[in-house]
Specification:
Length: 119
Amino acid sequence: MRAAPVDAVRAARASVGLAMERCGVARIELAVDLLRGAAAEVRCAEQAVRAGATRGAGELRGEVVLLKRDIAALGRVIDAGGALHRGLALRLGCATPGYAPHGRTAPQTAPAPAYEVQG
């Protein structure tokens, strides 16, 4: 018997949580694997709901809201980390082209001129 949709979403949340807690740049492959597992769990939940699994629908809604919140938080962490690395590269003068969301290289912008306040 397949897991209830709410259980699949909980498993997805657990994988996202592990990716946030235990993975860093050095272990990015583990984070990717955990997030792929989370996506597979969400697909299982979706299929179960489409097939008519309605047990725990209210609880499922709550878990989906929490999953969306966790994914948004992880996205903010990833974006902030990327911004930090881009900023450090520009400041250190070793910037290379970055990548746009569609996978093509995107030119880095020049650092803003440093202003000094005197007086």
